[in-house]
Design goal:
- The complex is a heterodimer of chains A (446) and B (99).
- Chain A is built from 7 helices and 23 strands.
- In chain A, strands 6, 7, 9, 10 and 11 form a 5-stranded antiparallel β-sheet that branches. Chain A has a 5-stranded mixed β-sheet with strand order 16-23-22-18-19, with no helix packed on it.
- In chain A, a hairpin with a 7-residue loop joins strand 18 and strand 19.
- The N and C termini of chain A lie far apart (63 Å).
- Chain B has 5 helices and no strands.
- Chain B is globular and about 30 Å long.
- The termini of chain B are far apart.
- About 6% of the residues of chain B have low confidence.
- The chains are: A alpha+beta (446), B mainly alpha (99).
- At the A-B interface, helix 3 and strand 1 of A face helix 3 and helix 4 of B.
Protein backbone atom coordinates (compact mmCIF):
# COMPACT_ATOMS: atom_id res chain seq x y z
CA UNK A 1 0.00 0.00 0.00
CA UNK A 2 1.58 3.21 -1.10
CA UNK A 3 1.61 6.21 1.17
CA UNK A 4 1.97 8.46 -1.82
CA UNK A 5 -0.61 11.13 -2.02
CA UNK A 6 -0.28 11.90 -5.71
CA UNK A 7 -3.52 12.95 -7.31
CA UNK A 8 -2.71 12.61 -11.01
CA UNK A 9 -6.33 12.19 -11.92
CA UNK A 10 -7.34 15.42 -10.30
CA UNK A 11 -4.90 17.93 -11.76
CA UNK A 12 -6.20 21.49 -12.02
CA UNK A 13 -5.89 21.22 -15.80
CA UNK A 14 -8.98 18.99 -15.76
CA UNK A 15 -11.09 21.68 -14.21
CA UNK A 16 -9.48 24.16 -16.53
CA UNK A 17 -10.34 22.04 -19.58
CA UNK A 18 -13.94 21.77 -18.44
CA UNK A 19 -14.11 25.51 -18.01
CA UNK A 20 -12.65 26.08 -21.45
CA UNK A 21 -14.91 23.44 -22.99
CA UNK A 22 -17.97 25.14 -21.63
CA UNK A 23 -17.12 28.61 -22.83
CA UNK A 24 -13.56 29.26 -23.96
CA UNK A 25 -14.05 32.99 -24.48
CA UNK A 26 -15.42 33.46 -20.99
CA UNK A 27 -12.66 31.26 -19.58
CA UNK A 28 -10.02 33.45 -21.23
CA UNK A 29 -11.64 36.49 -19.77
CA UNK A 30 -12.05 35.04 -16.33
CA UNK A 31 -8.55 33.67 -15.99
CA UNK A 32 -6.43 36.07 -18.00
CA UNK A 33 -8.66 39.05 -18.40
CA UNK A 34 -7.90 38.70 -22.08
CA UNK A 35 -10.24 39.49 -24.88
CA UNK A 36 -9.94 38.07 -28.38
CA UNK A 37 -9.61 40.23 -31.43
CA UNK A 38 -12.73 40.24 -33.53
CA UNK A 39 -11.33 37.64 -35.93
CA UNK A 40 -10.80 35.23 -32.98
CA UNK A 41 -7.16 34.80 -34.02
CA UNK A 42 -4.37 37.06 -32.82
CA UNK A 43 -6.04 37.85 -29.62
CA UNK A 44 -3.95 39.12 -26.80
CA UNK A 45 -4.51 42.83 -26.55
CA UNK A 46 -2.32 44.83 -24.22
CA UNK A 47 -3.16 43.79 -20.70
CA UNK A 48 -3.99 40.19 -21.61
CA UNK A 49 -0.66 39.67 -23.35
CA UNK A 50 1.21 41.22 -20.46
CA UNK A 51 -0.56 38.97 -17.99
CA UNK A 52 0.11 35.84 -20.00
CA UNK A 53 3.71 36.89 -20.55
CA UNK A 54 4.15 37.47 -16.84
CA UNK A 55 2.59 34.17 -15.88
CA UNK A 56 4.64 32.23 -18.43
CA UNK A 57 7.76 34.16 -17.55
CA UNK A 58 8.63 34.72 -21.18
CA UNK A 59 7.39 36.32 -24.39
CA UNK A 60 4.91 34.62 -26.69
CA UNK A 61 6.36 35.34 -30.15
CA UNK A 62 3.43 33.97 -32.12
CA UNK A 63 0.78 35.48 -29.90
CA UNK A 64 -1.12 36.85 -32.84
CA UNK A 65 -1.76 33.30 -34.04
CA UNK A 66 -2.68 31.89 -30.63
CA UNK A 67 -6.41 31.18 -30.94
CA UNK A 68 -8.72 32.51 -28.32
CA UNK A 69 -9.75 29.94 -25.77
CA UNK A 70 -6.65 27.73 -26.06
CA UNK A 71 -5.05 26.95 -22.73
CA UNK A 72 -1.34 27.63 -22.76
CA UNK A 73 -0.01 24.11 -22.22
CA UNK A 74 2.86 25.27 -20.02
CA UNK A 75 0.55 26.85 -17.51
CA UNK A 76 -1.89 24.12 -16.69
CA UNK A 77 0.19 22.65 -13.90
CA UNK A 78 1.83 25.55 -12.30
CA UNK A 79 -0.09 28.62 -11.49
CA UNK A 80 -2.05 28.99 -8.30
CA UNK A 81 -4.83 31.04 -9.82
CA UNK A 82 -5.57 28.17 -12.23
CA UNK A 83 -6.96 26.13 -9.39
CA UNK A 84 -9.81 28.63 -9.29
CA UNK A 85 -10.95 27.16 -12.58
CA UNK A 86 -12.14 24.09 -10.65
CA UNK A 87 -14.65 26.23 -8.78
CA UNK A 88 -18.29 26.46 -9.83
CA UNK A 89 -19.93 29.87 -9.64
CA UNK A 90 -17.82 31.39 -6.87
CA UNK A 91 -17.27 35.14 -6.60
CA UNK A 92 -13.54 35.77 -6.70
CA UNK A 93 -12.60 38.49 -4.22
CA UNK A 94 -8.88 38.14 -4.76
CA UNK A 95 -6.50 35.98 -6.76
CA UNK A 96 -3.33 36.82 -4.91
CA UNK A 97 -3.80 35.45 -2.36
CA UNK A 98 -6.79 33.40 -3.46
CA UNK A 99 -10.05 34.35 -1.74
CA UNK A 100 -13.39 33.33 -3.22
CA UNK A 101 -16.93 32.96 -1.79
CA UNK A 102 -20.09 31.12 -2.82
CA UNK A 103 -23.50 32.69 -3.59
CA UNK A 104 -26.14 31.42 -1.15
CA UNK A 105 -28.20 29.57 -3.75
CA UNK A 106 -25.14 27.49 -4.70
CA UNK A 107 -24.82 26.27 -1.09
CA UNK A 108 -28.10 24.33 -1.18
CA UNK A 109 -26.53 20.84 -0.94
CA UNK A 110 -26.44 19.29 2.52
CA UNK A 111 -22.84 18.31 1.75
CA UNK A 112 -21.07 21.13 -0.05
CA UNK A 113 -19.42 19.87 -3.24
CA UNK A 114 -15.73 20.69 -3.49
CA UNK A 115 -16.35 22.93 -6.49
CA UNK A 116 -18.65 25.10 -4.33
CA UNK A 117 -16.54 25.34 -1.16
CA UNK A 118 -15.22 28.83 -0.45
CA UNK A 119 -11.48 29.49 -0.44
CA UNK A 120 -9.68 31.73 1.99
CA UNK A 121 -5.91 31.81 1.64
CA UNK A 122 -3.58 34.03 3.63
CA UNK A 123 -0.43 33.23 1.68
CA UNK A 124 0.86 31.36 -1.33
CA UNK A 125 0.54 27.64 -1.98
CA UNK A 126 3.43 25.36 -1.04
CA UNK A 127 5.13 23.46 -3.87
CA UNK A 128 3.61 20.15 -2.81
CA UNK A 129 0.15 21.60 -3.30
CA UNK A 130 0.99 23.17 -6.66
CA UNK A 131 2.24 19.76 -7.81
CA UNK A 132 -0.44 17.81 -5.89
CA UNK A 133 2.32 15.45 -4.76
CA UNK A 134 3.53 15.05 -1.18
CA UNK A 135 4.91 11.50 -0.74
CA UNK A 136 7.16 12.47 2.18
CA UNK A 137 4.73 14.65 4.11
CA UNK A 138 4.87 14.36 7.89
CA UNK A 139 2.98 15.83 10.83
CA UNK A 140 4.98 16.69 13.96
CA UNK A 141 3.41 16.98 17.41
CA UNK A 142 5.77 18.53 19.94
CA UNK A 143 6.06 21.01 22.79
CA UNK A 144 4.37 20.28 26.12
CA UNK A 145 3.89 16.55 25.41
CA UNK A 146 5.40 13.42 26.97
CA UNK A 147 6.22 11.84 23.60
CA UNK A 148 6.79 14.07 20.58
CA UNK A 149 5.54 12.40 17.39
CA UNK A 150 6.46 12.67 13.73
CA UNK A 151 4.02 10.71 11.57
CA UNK A 152 3.45 10.19 7.87
CA UNK A 153 -0.11 10.28 6.59
CA UNK A 154 0.00 6.48 6.20
CA UNK A 155 1.03 6.19 9.86
CA UNK A 156 -1.83 8.45 10.93
CA UNK A 157 -4.24 6.14 9.09
CA UNK A 158 -2.69 3.01 10.63
CA UNK A 159 -2.45 4.18 14.23
CA UNK A 160 -5.69 6.10 14.68
CA UNK A 161 -9.35 5.57 13.89
CA UNK A 162 -10.28 7.11 10.55
CA UNK A 163 -13.65 8.86 10.48
CA UNK A 164 -15.68 10.85 7.97
CA UNK A 165 -17.67 13.80 9.30
CA UNK A 166 -19.70 16.56 7.66
CA UNK A 167 -18.11 19.68 9.12
CA UNK A 168 -19.10 23.33 8.85
CA UNK A 169 -16.25 25.80 8.33
CA UNK A 170 -16.94 29.54 8.36
CA UNK A 171 -14.51 32.42 7.96
CA UNK A 172 -14.47 34.75 10.97
CA UNK A 173 -14.96 37.67 8.59
CA UNK A 174 -17.97 36.25 6.73
CA UNK A 175 -20.38 39.16 6.37
CA UNK A 176 -17.73 41.87 6.72
CA UNK A 177 -18.91 43.68 3.58
CA UNK A 178 -22.07 44.85 5.38
CA UNK A 179 -20.19 46.80 8.06
CA UNK A 180 -20.72 50.55 8.13
CA UNK A 181 -18.31 52.22 8.62
CA UNK A 182 -16.23 49.77 6.62
CA UNK A 183 -13.94 47.26 8.30
CA UNK A 184 -10.59 46.30 6.82
CA UNK A 185 -10.00 42.93 5.21
CA UNK A 186 -11.55 40.70 2.58
CA UNK A 187 -15.06 41.99 1.95
CA UNK A 188 -16.98 38.73 2.26
CA UNK A 189 -20.74 39.02 1.84
CA UNK A 190 -22.33 35.77 3.05
CA UNK A 191 -20.58 32.95 1.18
CA UNK A 192 -17.50 32.20 3.27
CA UNK A 193 -19.15 29.14 4.78
CA UNK A 194 -19.43 25.53 3.66
CA UNK A 195 -20.11 22.02 4.94
CA UNK A 196 -18.17 19.30 3.13
CA UNK A 197 -17.45 15.71 4.16
CA UNK A 198 -13.97 15.47 5.69
CA UNK A 199 -12.08 12.21 6.29
CA UNK A 200 -9.27 12.03 8.80
CA UNK A 201 -8.24 11.15 12.34
CA UNK A 202 -9.29 12.95 15.48
CA UNK A 203 -6.87 15.59 16.74
CA UNK A 204 -7.77 14.47 20.28
CA UNK A 205 -6.65 10.89 19.58
CA UNK A 206 -3.29 12.04 18.24
CA UNK A 207 -2.75 14.42 21.17
CA UNK A 208 -3.62 11.67 23.65
CA UNK A 209 -1.03 9.42 22.00
CA UNK A 210 1.57 12.15 22.45
CA UNK A 211 0.50 12.63 26.07
CA UNK A 212 -0.45 16.24 26.78
CA UNK A 213 1.27 17.62 29.90
CA UNK A 214 -0.46 19.59 32.65
CA UNK A 215 1.53 22.63 31.57
CA UNK A 216 -0.30 22.72 28.22
CA UNK A 217 -2.30 25.92 27.59
CA UNK A 218 -2.76 26.32 23.81
CA UNK A 219 -2.05 24.66 20.48
CA UNK A 220 0.11 26.34 17.82
CA UNK A 221 -0.50 25.31 14.21
CA UNK A 222 2.20 25.52 11.53
CA UNK A 223 1.84 25.07 7.81
CA UNK A 224 3.89 24.90 4.61
CA UNK A 225 2.31 27.83 2.78
CA UNK A 226 4.41 30.90 2.02
CA UNK A 227 4.04 34.38 3.43
CA UNK A 228 2.94 36.78 0.67
CA UNK A 229 6.34 38.49 0.77
CA UNK A 230 8.00 35.08 0.30
CA UNK A 231 10.16 35.88 3.32
CA UNK A 232 10.96 32.37 4.62
CA UNK A 233 11.12 33.65 8.19
CA UNK A 234 7.51 34.82 8.17
CA UNK A 235 4.40 32.64 8.52
CA UNK A 236 1.38 33.43 6.38
CA UNK A 237 -0.78 32.44 9.34
CA UNK A 238 -0.24 30.44 12.52
CA UNK A 239 -3.11 30.26 14.96
CA UNK A 240 -4.23 27.78 17.59
CA UNK A 241 -6.94 26.93 20.10
CA UNK A 242 -7.08 26.49 23.89
CA UNK A 243 -6.01 22.99 24.92
CA UNK A 244 -9.49 22.09 26.24
CA UNK A 245 -10.95 22.84 22.80
CA UNK A 246 -8.18 20.84 21.11
CA UNK A 247 -9.39 17.72 22.94
CA UNK A 248 -12.86 18.05 21.34
CA UNK A 249 -13.46 14.78 19.42
CA UNK A 250 -15.10 16.79 16.64
CA UNK A 251 -11.82 18.30 15.36
CA UNK A 252 -10.17 16.35 12.55
CA UNK A 253 -6.69 16.12 11.12
CA UNK A 254 -8.06 15.55 7.63
CA UNK A 255 -6.57 14.09 4.47
CA UNK A 256 -9.66 13.75 2.29
CA UNK A 257 -12.35 16.18 1.20
CA UNK A 258 -15.56 14.65 -0.18
CA UNK A 259 -13.79 11.32 -0.64
CA UNK A 260 -10.82 12.64 -2.60
CA UNK A 261 -7.34 13.84 -1.55
CA UNK A 262 -7.73 17.41 -0.37
CA UNK A 263 -7.36 19.78 -3.36
CA UNK A 264 -4.46 22.23 -3.53
CA UNK A 265 -6.48 25.30 -2.54
CA UNK A 266 -8.04 23.49 0.42
CA UNK A 267 -4.82 22.36 2.09
CA UNK A 268 -3.28 19.37 0.24
CA UNK A 269 -2.28 16.93 1.64
CA UNK A 270 -3.21 17.49 5.31
CA UNK A 271 -5.13 20.03 7.34
CA UNK A 272 -7.09 20.66 10.49
CA UNK A 273 -10.84 21.03 10.38
CA UNK A 274 -12.15 22.81 13.50
CA UNK A 275 -15.91 23.13 12.96
CA UNK A 276 -17.74 25.98 14.64
CA UNK A 277 -14.66 28.11 15.29
CA UNK A 278 -13.26 30.69 12.85
CA UNK A 279 -11.87 29.09 9.71
CA UNK A 280 -8.41 30.37 10.64
CA UNK A 281 -8.24 27.67 13.34
CA UNK A 282 -8.49 25.06 10.55
CA UNK A 283 -4.86 25.26 9.46
CA UNK A 284 -4.24 24.09 5.90
CA UNK A 285 -1.06 22.41 4.52
CA UNK A 286 -0.52 21.31 8.13
CA UNK A 287 3.03 20.28 9.14
CA UNK A 288 3.24 20.70 12.87
CA UNK A 289 1.16 21.21 16.00
CA UNK A 290 3.12 22.54 18.94
CA UNK A 291 1.56 22.37 22.40
CA UNK A 292 2.50 25.58 24.17
CA UNK A 293 2.53 26.62 27.81
CA UNK A 294 1.04 30.01 26.95
CA UNK A 295 -1.52 31.49 24.58
CA UNK A 296 -0.06 31.12 21.07
CA UNK A 297 1.30 34.34 19.56
CA UNK A 298 1.87 33.29 15.95
CA UNK A 299 0.97 35.26 12.81
CA UNK A 300 -2.63 36.56 12.94
CA UNK A 301 -3.02 35.38 16.52
CA UNK A 302 -2.09 38.72 18.12
CA UNK A 303 -3.06 42.39 17.89
CA UNK A 304 -6.58 42.70 16.57
CA UNK A 305 -6.51 39.69 14.27
CA UNK A 306 -9.52 37.45 14.93
CA UNK A 307 -10.27 39.52 18.00
CA UNK A 308 -13.26 41.61 18.97
CA UNK A 309 -13.67 44.31 21.66
CA UNK A 310 -14.40 42.97 25.13
CA UNK A 311 -17.44 45.27 25.36
CA UNK A 312 -20.04 46.57 22.86
CA UNK A 313 -18.90 49.64 20.92
CA UNK A 314 -20.61 52.20 18.70
CA UNK A 315 -19.84 51.86 14.98
CA UNK A 316 -16.55 53.54 14.12
CA UNK A 317 -15.14 53.52 17.65
CA UNK A 318 -11.37 53.35 18.11
CA UNK A 319 -10.85 50.57 20.61
CA UNK A 320 -7.50 50.25 22.44
CA UNK A 321 -5.56 47.12 21.45
CA UNK A 322 -5.53 45.78 25.01
CA UNK A 323 -9.35 45.70 25.08
CA UNK A 324 -9.66 43.01 22.39
CA UNK A 325 -10.41 39.34 23.13
CA UNK A 326 -9.75 36.30 20.93
CA UNK A 327 -12.76 34.94 19.03
CA UNK A 328 -13.58 31.37 20.04
CA UNK A 329 -16.86 29.71 18.95
CA UNK A 330 -18.72 31.35 16.06
CA UNK A 331 -22.23 32.69 16.78
CA UNK A 332 -25.52 31.20 15.53
CA UNK A 333 -26.27 31.90 11.87
CA UNK A 334 -28.34 30.69 8.93
CA UNK A 335 -28.64 30.97 5.17
CA UNK A 336 -31.58 30.75 2.79
CA UNK A 337 -30.31 28.58 -0.05
CA UNK A 338 -33.58 28.21 -1.96
CA UNK A 339 -34.98 30.09 -3.70
CA UNK A 340 -32.22 32.35 -4.99
CA UNK A 341 -32.65 36.01 -4.15
CA UNK A 342 -34.35 37.89 -6.95
CA UNK A 343 -36.42 34.91 -8.03
CA UNK A 344 -39.97 35.31 -9.28
CA UNK A 345 -42.03 32.63 -7.55
CA UNK A 346 -45.25 30.84 -8.42
CA UNK A 347 -48.71 32.25 -8.10
CA UNK A 348 -50.40 33.69 -5.07
CA UNK A 349 -51.79 31.21 -2.55
CA UNK A 350 -49.57 28.48 -3.89
CA UNK A 351 -46.92 26.93 -1.70
CA UNK A 352 -43.39 28.09 -2.23
CA UNK A 353 -40.66 25.96 -0.70
CA UNK A 354 -38.12 27.92 1.34
CA UNK A 355 -35.08 26.07 2.65
CA UNK A 356 -31.54 26.51 3.87
CA UNK A 357 -29.06 25.64 6.57
CA UNK A 358 -28.24 26.81 10.09
CA UNK A 359 -25.20 26.38 12.33
CA UNK A 360 -24.07 27.56 15.77
CA UNK A 361 -20.44 27.27 16.84
CA UNK A 362 -20.15 24.63 19.55
CA UNK A 363 -23.93 24.46 19.99
CA UNK A 364 -26.79 22.98 17.98
CA UNK A 365 -29.76 24.73 16.41
CA UNK A 366 -33.00 24.80 18.38
CA UNK A 367 -35.33 26.43 15.82
CA UNK A 368 -35.28 28.33 12.56
CA UNK A 369 -38.09 30.73 11.72
CA UNK A 370 -38.82 32.61 8.52
CA UNK A 371 -40.79 35.79 7.98
CA UNK A 372 -42.32 37.14 4.78
CA UNK A 373 -43.57 40.40 6.31
CA UNK A 374 -40.30 42.07 7.42
CA UNK A 375 -40.26 40.40 10.81
CA UNK A 376 -43.84 41.19 11.90
CA UNK A 377 -44.76 37.51 12.08
CA UNK A 378 -42.62 34.36 12.07
CA UNK A 379 -43.22 30.86 10.74
CA UNK A 380 -41.40 27.95 12.38
CA UNK A 381 -39.63 25.71 9.87
CA UNK A 382 -39.00 21.95 9.92
CA UNK A 383 -35.49 21.41 11.23
CA UNK A 384 -33.34 18.33 10.61
CA UNK A 385 -30.83 17.00 13.09
CA UNK A 386 -27.15 17.34 12.29
CA UNK A 387 -25.75 14.02 10.99
CA UNK A 388 -22.87 14.51 13.46
CA UNK A 389 -21.71 17.30 15.81
CA UNK A 390 -20.07 20.08 13.82
CA UNK A 391 -22.35 19.83 10.78
CA UNK A 392 -24.81 22.48 9.76
CA UNK A 393 -28.51 21.57 9.92
CA UNK A 394 -31.08 21.64 7.14
CA UNK A 395 -34.32 23.59 7.65
CA UNK A 396 -37.25 23.88 5.28
CA UNK A 397 -40.86 25.05 5.06
CA UNK A 398 -43.56 25.89 2.54
CA UNK A 399 -45.06 29.35 2.52
CA UNK A 400 -48.13 30.86 0.86
CA UNK A 401 -47.86 34.44 -0.34
CA UNK A 402 -51.22 36.25 -0.05
CA UNK A 403 -51.00 38.46 -3.14
CA UNK A 404 -48.66 39.36 -5.95
CA UNK A 405 -45.87 41.78 -5.35
CA UNK A 406 -42.44 42.20 -3.82
CA UNK A 407 -41.59 40.24 -0.67
CA UNK A 408 -38.53 39.61 1.42
CA UNK A 409 -37.97 36.28 3.09
CA UNK A 410 -35.98 36.57 6.31
CA UNK A 411 -34.57 33.61 8.21
CA UNK A 412 -33.66 33.61 11.91
CA UNK A 413 -32.02 30.74 13.75
CA UNK A 414 -31.99 30.21 17.52
CA UNK A 415 -29.30 28.05 19.11
CA UNK A 416 -29.53 25.44 21.85
CA UNK A 417 -28.94 28.05 24.55
CA UNK A 418 -31.79 30.21 23.30
CA UNK A 419 -29.55 32.77 21.61
CA UNK A 420 -30.96 33.95 18.30
CA UNK A 421 -29.47 35.87 15.40
CA UNK A 422 -29.60 39.64 15.85
CA UNK A 423 -31.41 41.95 13.43
CA UNK A 424 -28.47 44.30 13.09
CA UNK A 425 -24.68 44.10 13.16
CA UNK A 426 -22.75 44.25 16.40
CA UNK A 427 -20.03 46.51 14.99
CA UNK A 428 -16.37 45.75 15.72
CA UNK A 429 -13.31 47.34 14.11
CA UNK A 430 -12.18 44.32 12.10
CA UNK A 431 -15.55 43.30 10.75
CA UNK A 432 -15.89 39.86 12.37
CA UNK A 433 -18.89 37.80 13.42
CA UNK A 434 -21.65 39.36 11.34
CA UNK A 435 -24.44 36.88 12.09
CA UNK A 436 -27.34 39.21 11.30
CA UNK A 437 -30.30 37.84 9.35
CA UNK A 438 -30.08 36.66 5.76
CA UNK A 439 -32.80 38.32 3.70
CA UNK A 440 -33.73 37.37 0.15
CA UNK A 441 -35.94 39.22 -2.34
CA UNK A 442 -38.83 37.34 -3.87
CA UNK A 443 -41.34 38.52 -6.44
CA UNK A 444 -44.68 36.75 -6.51
CA UNK A 445 -46.58 36.95 -9.77
CA UNK A 446 -50.30 36.51 -10.31
CA UNK B 1 12.85 58.56 -8.28
CA UNK B 2 12.28 57.87 -4.60
CA UNK B 3 14.12 54.83 -3.21
CA UNK B 4 10.99 53.07 -1.98
CA UNK B 5 9.40 53.43 -5.36
CA UNK B 6 12.42 51.88 -7.06
CA UNK B 7 12.35 49.01 -4.59
CA UNK B 8 8.61 48.63 -5.10
CA UNK B 9 8.85 48.56 -8.88
CA UNK B 10 11.76 46.13 -8.71
CA UNK B 11 9.88 43.72 -6.51
CA UNK B 12 6.70 43.80 -8.57
CA UNK B 13 8.54 43.42 -11.84
CA UNK B 14 10.66 40.57 -10.47
CA UNK B 15 7.70 38.76 -8.96
CA UNK B 16 5.24 39.13 -11.79
CA UNK B 17 7.12 40.66 -14.68
CA UNK B 18 4.45 43.26 -15.27
CA UNK B 19 4.50 47.03 -15.22
CA UNK B 20 1.53 48.97 -13.88
CA UNK B 21 0.15 50.05 -17.21
CA UNK B 22 0.10 46.44 -18.45
CA UNK B 23 -1.66 44.92 -15.43
CA UNK B 24 -5.45 44.69 -15.67
CA UNK B 25 -5.72 45.23 -11.90
CA UNK B 26 -4.21 48.70 -12.34
CA UNK B 27 -7.57 49.78 -13.75
CA UNK B 28 -9.07 49.19 -10.30
CA UNK B 29 -7.16 52.22 -9.04
CA UNK B 30 -8.75 55.53 -10.09
CA UNK B 31 -6.49 58.12 -11.68
CA UNK B 32 -4.81 60.43 -9.23
CA UNK B 33 -1.59 61.52 -7.62
CA UNK B 34 0.16 58.55 -5.98
CA UNK B 35 -1.85 56.08 -8.09
CA UNK B 36 1.32 54.37 -9.33
CA UNK B 37 2.95 54.52 -5.90
CA UNK B 38 -0.05 52.75 -4.39
CA UNK B 39 0.01 50.15 -7.15
CA UNK B 40 3.67 49.29 -6.75
CA UNK B 41 3.72 49.36 -2.95
CA UNK B 42 0.61 47.21 -2.56
CA UNK B 43 0.85 44.75 -5.42
CA UNK B 44 4.36 43.66 -4.53
CA UNK B 45 2.67 41.11 -2.27
CA UNK B 46 -1.02 40.96 -3.05
CA UNK B 47 -3.44 41.95 -5.74
CA UNK B 48 -4.80 45.51 -5.52
CA UNK B 49 -8.24 43.88 -5.72
CA UNK B 50 -7.93 43.78 -1.95
CA UNK B 51 -7.16 47.52 -1.78
CA UNK B 52 -10.07 48.40 -4.06
CA UNK B 53 -12.54 46.51 -1.83
CA UNK B 54 -11.79 48.62 1.25
CA UNK B 55 -13.79 51.59 2.55
CA UNK B 56 -11.73 52.93 5.42
CA UNK B 57 -11.17 56.18 7.24
CA UNK B 58 -7.77 57.85 6.91
CA UNK B 59 -6.91 56.69 10.41
CA UNK B 60 -7.79 53.09 9.55
CA UNK B 61 -5.69 53.32 6.37
CA UNK B 62 -2.84 54.69 8.43
CA UNK B 63 -3.10 51.72 10.83
CA UNK B 64 -3.30 49.38 7.84
CA UNK B 65 -0.02 50.75 6.46
CA UNK B 66 1.59 50.17 9.87
CA UNK B 67 0.31 46.59 9.81
CA UNK B 68 1.72 46.07 6.31
CA UNK B 69 5.14 47.18 7.54
CA UNK B 70 5.08 45.21 10.81
CA UNK B 71 3.44 41.98 9.64
CA UNK B 72 3.54 42.15 5.88
CA UNK B 73 7.17 43.01 5.32
CA UNK B 74 6.37 46.19 3.38
CA UNK B 75 9.15 48.80 3.17
CA UNK B 76 8.79 51.63 5.66
CA UNK B 77 7.48 54.88 4.28
CA UNK B 78 8.77 58.21 5.46
CA UNK B 79 6.30 61.06 5.93
CA UNK B 80 6.99 62.53 2.50
CA UNK B 81 6.07 59.22 0.87
CA UNK B 82 3.25 58.30 3.24
CA UNK B 83 1.11 61.44 3.05
CA UNK B 84 0.32 61.35 -0.69
CA UNK B 85 -0.48 57.64 -0.40
CA UNK B 86 -2.83 58.26 2.52
CA UNK B 87 -4.42 61.16 0.63
CA UNK B 88 -5.04 58.87 -2.33
CA UNK B 89 -6.47 56.00 -0.28
CA UNK B 90 -8.69 58.31 1.76
CA UNK B 91 -9.99 60.01 -1.39
CA UNK B 92 -10.67 56.94 -3.51
CA UNK B 93 -11.30 54.17 -0.93
CA UNK B 94 -12.55 56.18 2.00
CA UNK B 95 -15.56 55.57 4.22
CA UNK B 96 -17.82 57.68 2.05
CA UNK B 97 -16.73 56.18 -1.29
CA UNK B 98 -19.70 54.40 -2.87
CA UNK B 99 -19.18 50.69 -3.43
Amino acid sequence: MSDQTEAKDRKPSEGLRTLYKRDPIAADQQIFGRRAHEDRRGFLKGAGLATMTAVLGMAVPFHRNFPAGLIPAALAEETEAFFLATKDGLTILNDRPVNAETPAHLLDDDVTPTARHFVRNNGLLPDEALRMSAPNWTLTIDGEVDTPLTLTIAELKERFEVVTLNLCIECGGNGRAAFNPGASGNQWTLGAVANSAWTGVRLADVLKAAGVKDTAVYTAHYSADHHLSRNPEKQAISRGVPIAKAMDPGILIAFEMNGEPIPALHGFPLRLVTPGWPGSTSQKWLERIEIRDQVHDGAKMTGKSYRVPAYPVAPGTDVPKEDFVIIEAMPVKSLITHPATGTTAGATNQDVEIRGHAWAGDRTISTVHVSIDFGATWIETTLSDAPNPGSWQRWQTRVKFPQEGYYEVWARATDSKGVAQPFAIDWNPKGYLNNSLHRIALTVSA
Amino acid sequence: MRPFLIAGIASIVLSTGVLAEDDPDFALLPDGTAQEDVFYMCSACHSVKLVAQQRLSRKRWDETLDWMVEEGGMAELDAEEREPILDYLETHFGEETPR
